[in-house]
Amino acid sequence: MESTFSIIAEPSRRAILSLLAAAEQSVGDIEEHLRMPQPSVSKHLRVLREAGFVESRVDAQRRLYRIRPEPLMEIDAWLAPFRRYWSAHLDALERHLDRTGQAPRTPAARRKPKGKKR
Amino acid sequence: MESTFSIIAEPSRRAILSLLAAAEQSVGDIEEHLRMPQPSVSKHLRVLREAGFVESRVDAQRRLYRIRPEPLMEIDAWLAPFRRYWSAHLDALERHLDRTGQAPRTPAARRKPKGKKR
DNA sequence: CACGTATATGCCTCATAAGGTATATACTCT
DNA sequence: AGAGTATATACCTTATGAGGCATATACGTG
Q1: Angstroms from A23 CA to nearest CA on chain B
Q2: Nearest residue of A to residue B9 by CA position?
Q3: Is the pTM of this model over 0.85?
């Protein structure tokens, strides 16, 4: 039995969820967007479904998958006690992501004209 | 290299982090509070430290560990796109739109015309 | 009914990480 | 220096889960 947290430890599953965050998608859509083999997509979706992260509805031969928020809310709730550590200085995340070379997938607010020093 | 998300997939590590959320603790403190073998605690702390979740300072023979917020902020940031699913107001709106079959306000490119079926 | 498409599942292999136990290192005090 | 305390690491075993591939099931269309 996989826990809520270990489910989203899988990068492919996070990618699927992020895709679904934007809009409902069929298995084929996901397969194509993420360029991964269809059995992999189906398996990950099964795990996500059984853990309550997604639900599916039938549309002819396709299954359309969409987000169910509850498990993600659980994670959000777990984070609550830590928020006091960053409610003060919010740009620590940006520095951290810079350091670890993560790609921010919100291209909008890339750089703030805050004049950060190196 | 373990990812930020897989690190907190481990229940013991989440327990350690939750403990540290309240206050700085020594290895012995953690060992005692969580009633787990000391080598386990040290190993988990090592993982957490290398991933930037915690940092330690030396106090005589002890090491006092405390939270570093950055990786947790990263997770918080990853959750952002999903929040609209549980912000009560938007969730209700969404259900309403689904029920009434309104056009999705979700970004772009729903289905690309593969065949001309509906 | 036969066929194409869409998705799910079963089987196998392999890597990784957690737990346990023993031991090493570091620091303190007498 | 020696003993005691606090923490880290090394080694081994084992379980679990992801990926690849083949195949099964479901549905729709001609």
Answers
A1: 6
A2: A6
A3: no
Q: What is the mean pLDDT of residues A6-10?
A: 97
Which stretch of DSSP H or E encloses residue B59? strand B54-59
Question: How many residue pairs from chains A and B have C-beta atoms closer than 8 A?
Answer: 90
Q: HSE-up of A67 (CA within 13 Å, CB side)?
A: 27
Average pLDDT over residues A18-34: 97
- Is the distance between the Cβ of B59 and the closest atom of strand C smaller than 7 Å? no
Q: Distance, in angstroms, between B55 CA and closest chain A CA?
A: 14
**B79, exposed or middle or buried, with CB in 10 Å at 0-12, 13-18, 19+?**
middle
CB atoms within 10 A of CB A100: 13
Q: Give the closest of A76, A78, A85 to B69, CB-based.
A: A85
pLDDT tens digits, residue range A44-97?
999 999 999 999 999 999 999 999 999 999 999 999 999 999 886 666 666 666
Q: Is the pLDDT of residue B102 over 90?
A: no
The 3-state DSSP class for residue B9 equals coil
